[in-house]
Amino acid sequence: MSFTTKIFPFFLLFLLIHPLQAVPSIIPLNGSCTDKCGSIVLKYPFGSGFGCGHPTFSRFIKCTSGVLQFSTGTGIYTISTLDYTTNTLILTDPFMSTCSSMQNSGSFTLDRSTPFSIMKENIFVLLGCSTTSAVFDPKQDLCDTGSGSNVCRGLYSCKGVTGIGLEPNAPISTCCVYDPPVPIGSGYGLNLPRLQCSSYSSIYGFGGDEGDPMKWQYGISLQYNNSYYTDDSCKNCEDSGGICGFSGSDESFACICRNGVNTTINCFGRGYAWSGTWRHKIQTEMSIGGILFFWMMLFI
């Protein structure tokens, strides 16, 4: 018997045992993607977690226990509203001061790498600031002393100011409607310790009554870049009932179907599709076939 004849059975055995392991799973299963988080509907580029939506958005957005959250370097904030027609969302900071409740706040930053920017309608108010704070430096001109004074008077008329050690209708000399020297957008930072202020408030609307701070709309309004539909892949996926996501180290596009199968195109069966259930089943059957073949060869 020649060497080739002897080695051929073992080579065939190797192919039978490892045929599928040699082919990488291009798209891993991701059964955690949902099209809703609590009462908020999720559409691309937003997703419920890693591997869902657009990879750039998934670094900052996730759904935790039915609550849609936004993460920055200074904390995790709740997304209370998401509007796809205006490409905007509203963040709620639990430590931010409002008319009804004021408390010492943390800082807020918006990383430059985010696809979000703070809307110009947002009004940031610094409360309980030291008189030596840089915001009161006349050479810096960081406070809006025009209409901003009315905002400060409105907030300082609230009973909630007692939470930061002030009396209602206290002098507004420690209040500043912050007007930073650079345009508000990505990379925005509000460092309260550096600014020597106790708290901050953010107002994105007056609720139709600028004279009643109880009706003002408190929160941080962000606008997001919606130029992520670079081709028809996501639209085709959504039209087939799938959820757009990504996979692999290259974060390539993946259409996540409701039947547990992920595909590169859509859920109608076109494109590469790989089900984890079938993968393990086929691997098991092929491995058993290889073992049987091996025992047959022993008796030939």
Record the SSE blueprint.
Elements: H1 3-17, E1 36-37, E2 40-41, H2 55-58, E3 61-64, E4 67-72, E5 75-83, E6 88-92, E7 108-109, E8 116-118, E9 123-129, H3 147-156, E10 176-177, E11 189-190, H4 192-195, E12 197-205, E13 217-218, E14 220-224, H5 233-239, E15 243-247, E16 252-256, E17 262-263, E18 273-274, H6 276-298
Antiparallel strand pairs: 1-2, 3-4, 4-5, 5-6, 6-14, 7-11, 8-14, 9-10, 9-12, 12-13, 15-16, 16-17, 17-18
3D structure, described in words:
This protein has helices at about 5-15, 55-60, 145-155, 190-195, 235-240, 275-300; strands spanning about 35, 40, 60-65, 65-70, 75-85, 90, 110, 115-120, 125-130, 175, 190, 195-205, 215-220, 220-225, 245, 250-255, 260-265, 275. With about 300 residues, the chain is α+β, with helices and mostly antiparallel strands. It has a domain at about 95-215. It has a six-stranded antiparallel β-sheet with strand order 3-4-5-6-14-8, with no helix packed on it. The protein has a four-stranded antiparallel β-sheet with strand order 10-9-12-13. The chain has a four-stranded antiparallel β-sheet with strand order 15-16-17-18. A hairpin with a 4-residue loop joins strand 5 (about 75-85) and strand 6. It is elongated, with a radius of gyration of 29 Å.
